[in-house]
Amino acid sequence: MSSSCRVVVLISGNGSNLQAIIDGCDDNLNADIVGVISNKPDAYGLIRAHHSEIDTSCVIAYKNESRSEYDSRLLAAVNKYQPDLIVLAGFMRILTDEFVSQFLGKMINIHPSLLPKYTGLNTHQRAIDAGDLEHGASVHFVIPQLDAGPVILQAKVPVYTGDDATVLAERVHEQEHAIYPLVVKWFSLGRLKMLEGKAYLDGQLIGPSGYAPD
Ligand SMILES: Nc1nc2c(c(=O)[nH]1)N[C@@H](CN(C=O)c1ccc(C(=O)N[C@@H](CCC(=O)O)C(=O)O)cc1)CN2
Ligand SMILES: NCC(=O)N[C@@H]1O[C@H](COP(=O)([O-])[O-])[C@@H](O)[C@H]1O
């Protein structure tokens, strides 16, 4: 059996996606979360990690610290774990090109929209305001350009009349918790790769809207 995939998860908040991946790793013996790093000391995801006896650390931004200086400290904290995969799970900082370039093809993110729609923040309200009938989440490889990396897997949810951002977010979260652990499993089994800026599963090119079974 190949050695386990060493996974480091970066968070900023509640950590429900972290929890889904923790739970998923219990079944997927090929992945092992070796560290959780937060930029916020009060992130509930740190509690979740502690409950699962996962090592945690905080990298808190100093006042007047440049983005590059912060990312240098974050890089040192990440590399202590010697990860095979970095998972951004509600990590709410834009990472510098220098940081991202260290982990091309081994860093993924979950974004609460059907990319390429609604990169950035406040995606649920933007979908509601636009009158969209469907919304969702996307798992993608991380590249320097924000939320622009090749999409790996998407999940769609309906948008109902009367939805507010909180209700829609909860509907999206349910789908996030299903797809993110699956993508981590694919990567940990060596099935998922990023080559020349494109995502491949089992050697097959993944389309712009993510993997779609035949
Ligand atoms: N270089 C990259 N960095 C990050 C990516 C990426 O694709 N490339 N994904 C994001 C995750 N993300 C959306 O999925 C995201 C996170 C944060 C922000 C943002 O505007 N952050 C602000 C601070 C906001 C806050 O503190 O609430 C900032 O960093 O100035 C946008 C999108 C992770 N990083
Ligand atoms: N742009 C990044 C972004 O908005 N990510 C979103 O933050 C939430 C984190 O929830 P969690 O802390 O419960 O996993 C998730 O919905 C994720 O899609």
UniProtKB/TrEMBL annotation:
Catalytic center residues: 111
Sequence positions that bind (6R)-10-formyltetrahydrofolate: 67, 92-95, 109
Family matches, as HAMAP family: PurN
Catalytic activity: N(1)-(5-phospho-beta-D-ribosyl)glycinamide + (6R)-10-formyltetrahydrofolate = N(2)-formyl-N(1)-(5-phospho-beta-D-ribosyl)glycinamide + (6S)-5,6,7,8-tetrahydrofolate + H(+)
Residues annotated as signal peptide: none
Domain Formyl transferase N-terminal per the UniProt entry, residue ranges: 6-184
Keywords attached to this entry: Purine biosynthesis, Transferase
Highest taxon listed in the record's lineage: Bacteria
Name recorded for this polypeptide: Phosphoribosylglycinamide formyltransferase
Family (UniProt): Belongs to the GART family.
Binding site for N(1)-(5-phospho-beta-D-ribosyl)glycinamide: 15-17
NCBIfam families (alphabetical): PurN
Originating species: Shewanella inventionis
UniProt function note: Catalyzes the transfer of a formyl group from 10-formyltetrahydrofolate to 5-phospho-ribosyl-glycinamide (GAR), producing 5-phospho-ribosyl-N-formylglycinamide (FGAR) and tetrahydrofolate.
